[in-house]
Structure formats: C-alpha cells, structure tokens
Amino acid sequence: MTAHAMSAVRDHASPGRTGPAGRALDLRGLTKIYGSETVVQDFRALIGAGEFFSLLGPSGSGKTTTLMMVAGFAAIDAGQLLVDGTDLAAVPPERRGFGMVFQNYAIFPHLNVFENVAFPLRARGAPKALVREKVAAALDLVRLGHLAERYSRELSGGQQQRVAIARAIVFQPPVVLMDEPLGALDKNLRYEMQVEIKEIQQRLGMTVLYVTHDQEEAMNLSDRVAIMSRGRIEQVGAPRDVYEHPANAFTARFLGEANLLPGEVVTAQADGAAFRLAEGTLLRTGRPGPRAAGSGQLFVRPEKLTLRREDDPPGEGMNRLTGTVRRTSFLGNVVRYAVETPGGALVTVDAPNMSARHHPEPGERALIAWSPADTAILPPDAP
Questions:
Q1: Which of 131, 138, 212, 260 is the most buried (most CB within 10 A)?
Q2: Which residues neighbour 379 within 8 Å (Cβ) at sequence distance 6 or greater?
Q3: What are phi and psi of 205, to 5 degrees?
Q4: Hey, how many other C-beta atoms are within 10 angstroms of the C-beta on 356?
C-alpha cells in the first residue's frame, strides 16, 4: 500500500467532485413496514464524517433492512436520510453515490479484476486516463495490482473481497455500505480482512456503515456500534462502553458471556448499590445503579471473576460467592468454569490458561471473588 495510491484515491472522486471522502450520515426515524409487520421502527443515528459505525444484532433484528433503506434498495416508509443535511430518502440508489460491498462480493464473472474495479468510473463517464489512474491506485491499496488481468474464477475468497472493496472505494463515495462482507471467509482470513478494512477506512477518512452479526468483528472494527433487536436500537456506543456498561440484559448477553443473577436492590446511591441475591447473599456494585430499591439483575462478565480455593481469603472489599464446580471447558487461552451457587444459579468464570493458577475439577468446592467496580445492576428481563 503506497502513499501515492492513497493520495490518488482521495484526490479524484467522480468527475467534478472534490473534498474529503467521508460525509455525515443522519438517519432520522427510518421505518420499514412489510404488510402488517414493522421490520424497522424509528431508527435514529447520527453518524459522523469519517466514522466507522456498525449495526450489530441477531438474524431478524432489522440491521440489513436498515442498510438497504440507506442504500436505496428498500423504500423508506417513514423518516429521513440526510447526507450533510440533504435528504436522500426519495433519491434512487444509483444517484445516492454510495459505495456498496455485498456479502457475496457480487463481482462480475465476465470482467477481469481491472474492469470490475473500473465499472463505477466508466458508468460515471470518467476519462480513460483517469480510469487507469484510479483503478491502479485502488488495486494498489488492496494489494491486488499484480492480479489486474485475472477473472473471479481465478481468485480466492479473500481476493474477491478485496476486488469488491476496491470497486466500492474507487470513485471516492461519501459513504461506504458493507453488508456482512466477511461472512464467507474462514476465521483467520476474516481477521486479516478486518485489519485491512479498518486501515483503509482510517487512511481514506471514509464514512462506513457496516452490518454484521459477529460481535468480535463489530468491536474490532467500529468506532461506535448500534445493538439492534426486533427492529429497534437497544443501545448505541463505543465498543468498550456497550460491552462494559450494557443498558439491559439483551445487550449484555448478545455481546458475549454474561452472568445475570436475579435479586433485589437493597440500597441505591450515586456511587453504587447493595444487591441481595434470591438465596440471600449480599453483594455490592461500584457503579451508579438504579435510583430506588426493587428487583433487578446483577451483571458481571466471566473474565472479571477469579476462582480460588474455598478457604482462600477473597481480598478486602471484594464480592464473593462460594459454590461447586459443575463443568470445565478448555478454550485454549482460557479455561471456562460453570460454578453452581447455593441458590442453584450457574456462574460462568473465565480463567487465563496459566500453569501457575489453581484449576479446580468438577465436584470441587471453590470461591468466586471479584471487584464491586466490575459489577452493575440491570433491569429485570421484560415479560
């Protein structure tokens, strides 16, 4: 990847257009209805110029439908789609000027790599000299310049994805839309492509709206993430914020392993709360919690917990639970334990795979200890 390639892609947009690649994208109440079903309801997000913003959620959550509305492939039934203040909701997709990377790559089998990448420029009537310069720069950016004459059947999956990315950015669109573009790749190649996509996005200053159901992918790539469920946004924030401070049990569970223990808030203060589990154990949080006593769920991530011998001191000020190890799972870099507490709940503990650590066996009694600072109280599950 050369400085000339990045400069060439930045310096020439579609004919007559100048300025930075990234544009602000303001989604105001986007709604999509199919028959009697509201698939996306009142989706609102202000995506800054040059921001990498991901839609994350399970199948059927409405994330791809939201992307298709932004792209123009699905009509917007209500709401506004503004790019730098201009509403594009009624503008056809070919006139929105967005770059698009599909899950299945969608590169043309009858065209070689060069012509696939050149297609958006030729469709815009760009001069031949500019096409050669821009395509060469885009292929250099994705490290495919040496394969310009090859056809898709001669490319690996990762190479086809690079062609799709080069084609999406070659005309310097104001926004690039990506619909689960790495879903067909194996795990190692998927991670490599994540690194490359993020590097290109940062170097070119592109605004990216990205759809994925892969939590690690979203957290690795994104500046901010919108967690979606049943057509609505559950939470928006930076990856670390939504992971460490989920707004509800759905977000907590969807973003990774989460321990959620039901009980009652005993006292609630600005700097934390006291929480009593159903079986009577009193635990504390070091974060702002609910404003009043009532039912809730104590939340803590498995990697925040430490597993010790039952008679080991837990440490001053630490929360503690005793229980019986019921199951162990070797996951490579961590060992995952399922510990049954006196109330019958199973608590998941992730311990680093280190030879110096105590690794209890199933049936062994153990102590779980953790800091109140790593503990939060979430609302009860909705009925």
A1: 138
A2: 248, 249, 290, 296, 297
A3: 70, 30
A4: 5
CATH top-level class for 3-244?
A: alpha beta
- Quote the percentage of the chain above a pLDDT of 90: 67
| Residue 1: partners with Cβ closer than 8 Å, 6 or more residues away | 140, 141, 143, 199, 203
Residue appearing with tokens 């930045």: 10
Q: DSSP E strands: which ranges in the chain?
A: 25-34, 37-47, 52-56, 78-83, 86-87, 99-101, 175-179, 207-212, 224-229, 232-237, 259-269, 272-277, 282-285, 294-300, 306-309, 319-330, 334-340, 346-352, 365-370, 376-378
Note the pLDDT tens digit of each residue in 135-147. Answer: 999 999 888 999 9
pLDDT at 41 over 80: yes
**3-state SS class at 167:** helix
For tokens 């009697």, name the residue. 36
Segment 70-90, tens digit of pLDDT: 999 999 999 999 998 899 999
Angstrom CA distances, 293 to 97, 265, 282, 296, 383, stand at 52, 5, 14, 9, 20
What are the sequence ranges of the domains in the chain?
Answer: 3-244, 257-378
pTM metric for this prediction: 0.87
Mean pLDDT of 255-283: 89
Q: For the chain, give the mean pLDDT.
A: 89
Range 214-218 average pLDDT: 92
CA pair distance 212, 219, nearest whole angstrom: 10
Residue 312 has what pLDDT?
Answer: 81
**Residue 10: what pLDDT?**
52
CATH topology of domain 257-378: OB fold (Dihydrolipoamide Acetyltransferase, E2P) (2.40.50)
| pLDDT for the residue 12 | 39
